[in-house]
């Protein structure tokens, strides 16, 4: 999983609220985050996409089906695909939290509930 700081409670909430016809989008600090949960009605459109940015166009196209899931957790904004992305996330996190809470130094250090 490339979003290791997403809280388990958010995943549980999204699983409970998911329907075939909804797109659940977590929001924190007024910004969209990850993971986005796509209902099965959208699978054919998703399968026709190419590249990493294609799904953004579907969010606009199907905006009437988007359901925001508000959460006070910046973990939804960290998408860590590379070691460099992890290092950048650590720096941002530590600056935002004045060093009070440290991110793990490697993905294997994360807590089991995250």
Describe this structure in words.
- The chain is an alpha+beta fold.
- The protein is 32% helix and 13% strand.
- It has four helices and four strands.
- It has helices at residues 8-17, 43-47, 54-61, 83-96; strands spanning 23-28, 31-32, 37-38, 66-70.
- Strands 1, 2, 3 and 4 form a four-stranded mixed β-sheet that branches.
- The model is unreliable at 107-114 (pLDDT under 50).
Task: Compose a concise summary of this entry.
The protein has 114 residues and is α+β, with helices and mostly antiparallel strands. The chain is built from 4 helices and 4 strands; from the N terminus they run H-E-E-E-H-H-E-H. Helices cover 32% and strands 13% of the residues.
């Amino acid at each position: 999983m490339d979003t290791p700081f997403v809280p388990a409670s958010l995943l549980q909430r999204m699983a409970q609220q998911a329907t075939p016809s909804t797109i659940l989008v977590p929001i924190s600090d007024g910004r969209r985050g990850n993971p986005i949960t796509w209902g099965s009605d959208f699978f054919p459109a998703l399968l026709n996409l190419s590249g990493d940015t294609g799904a953004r166009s579907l969010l606009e196209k199907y905006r009437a089906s988007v359901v925001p899931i508000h959460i006070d957790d910046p973990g939804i904004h960290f998408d860590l695909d590379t070691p460099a992305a992890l290092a950048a996330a650590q720096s941002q996190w530590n600056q935002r939290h004045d060093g009070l809470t440290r991110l793990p130094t490697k993905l294997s250090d994360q807590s089991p509930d995250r």
